[in-house]
Design brief:
The protein has 17 helices and 15 strands. It has 396 residues and is of the alpha+beta class. It has two domains: 104 residues, Penicillin-binding protein 2a (Domain 2) (Alpha-Beta Complex), CATH 3.90.1310.10; 218 residues, DD-peptidase/beta-lactamase superfamily (Beta-lactamase), CATH 3.40.710. The protein has a five-stranded antiparallel β-sheet, with helices on both faces. It has a four-stranded mixed β-sheet with strand order 3-2-1-6, with no helix packed on it. Strands 4-5 form a two-stranded antiparallel ribbon. A hairpin with an 8-residue loop joins strand 13 and strand 14. It starts with a helix and ends with a helix.
């Protein structure tokens, strides 16, 4: 009766042997493609295999020496085949020394989109999160640089000591100044608090203003003395949103950032919640997380106004270079300062399709560390992936 307790002891060498014989279930993408599986050698020992390094931070890894991460960790019990209670079948398998066999799991990731996102960041550092705008399901989640989980044990020391930190999951853990992408939240908050309207006219002659010791500049000044709120957002006029932030005050602004899923001060942003922010404005006024769904964050009217501003940013603003003839895209580019001696981080959050009568299906967030201008670097990556996602769903 003490067999399970004895086997679980860390000083029991049979524990390692038992673990090696567990045939973990497969991790399948939304179309049934295997992302992770177990191969069995002649002696009955299982070795975990992965479809590629572009999956490393989403699917994670399984290692006897270094543990589990990602989806492998989140669904460890199912993949291991751990029974909820002792059944006659499991008792019989133990008695006959049959290997423990895990369950397959199917996740929302799309292998083709995941691979494309990984290739888009090859040779760079950053993150991409692509969501289904209707359901909030994650279609692709990539962090770069990455690593090959098939060689984790052999390369662990090198990976853990690398200065570019390939083991670090930038999509879920990276903290970056959001740049002008945060203007979408400032705009939504100011509208919700009745501190501005879509028709308010802003004076901005030279596109720069000093706030204390900081000088705020307009990213793409249209050369006009005045313009309304929506065009201020489209042109990336940060002066306007700095003024709106002062109207809101730090406490309200921090509250809205948290309600939008950032859970942080307005100074920093994580790519995955940024994708949630983008998915808020296509139509649904709720973020795809239980707390926001329970209470709502913004009204439908505010969502429509922010959406119009994001459409204008692509049709008239600096992000206009990503406009495609057969797919309407809306979004907001950002260029976030990263220190005096470093190139800025390049940001883009957006969704597609974005036509007036179209129901958006995809939302995306892209950040490229020290990539430069968001409209020049991050926005084209987002456009390619949104187009690929739209093409992949044609006919569905």
């Amino acid at each position: 009766m003490r067999a399970p307790e004895l086997l679980a002891r860390e000083d029991n060498p049979r524990r390692v042997v038992a673990e090696q014989r567990i045939r973990r279930g497969r991790v399948l993408d939304r179309h049934g493609k295997a992302l992770a599986w177990s191969e069995i050698d002649a002696e009955g020992y299982a070795e975990r295999r992965y479809a590629g390094g572009w999956l490393a931070h989403a699917v994670g890894y399984y290692s006897l020496r270094y543990g589990v991460s990602g989806i492998e960790a989140a669904f460890d019990e199912q993949l291991r085949g751990e029974p909820d209670h002792i059944t006659w079948a499991s008792w019989r398998n133990n008695l006959l020394h049959r290997p423990q066999i895990g369950q397959d799991i199917q996740v929302s990731l799309d292998a083709a989109l995941q691979r494309a996102a990984g290739e888009a960041l090859e040779g760079q550092s950053g993150a991409i999160v692509l969501l289904d705008a209707e359901t909030g399901e994650v279609l692709a989640l990539v962090s770069a640089p990455t690593f090959d989980p098939n060689r984790l044990d052999e390369e662990w020391d090198t990976l853990s000591e690398a200065t570019d930190k390939p083991l670090f999951n930038r999509a879920l853990q990276g903290l970056y100044p959001p740049g002008a992408t945060f203007n979408t939240i400032v705009m939504a908050a100011a509208l919700e608090e009745n501190l501005t309207t879509a028709d308010e006219i802003f004076q901005d002659k030279d596109g720069r203003e000093q706030f204390g010791k900081a000088v705020v500049r307009c990213a793409n000044h249209p050369g006009l003395d005045t313009f309304d709120l929506l065009h201020a957002a489209a042109y990336g006029c940060n002066v306007t949103f700095a003024r709106l932030s002062l109207r809101l005050g730090s406490e309200k602004l921090a509250n809205y950032a948290e309600w939008f899923g950032l859970g942080l001060s307005p100074a920093f942003e994580i790519p995955a919640p940024a994708g949630q922010v983008a998915s808020t404005f296509p139509g649904p006024t709720l973020l795809p997380n239980p707390e926001s769904i329970a209470r709502g964050v913004i009204t439908p009217q505010t969502a429509r106004l922010v959406r119009r501003a994001m459409v204008l940013a692509v049709s008239e603003g600096l992000a206009g270079q990503i406009a495609l003839p057969d797919l309407s895209i809306a979004g907001k580019a950002g260029t976030a300062e990263a220190g005096q001696d470093s190139a800025p981080h390049a940001w883009f959050i957006g969704f597609a399709p974005a036509g007036q009568e179209e129901k958006p299906r995809f939302a995306i967030a892209v950040v490229v560390e020290h990539g430069g201008e968001g409209a020049q670097v991050a926005a084209p990556i987002a456009a390619r992936l949104l187009k690929l996602a739209a093409d992949s769903r044609t006919g569905e």
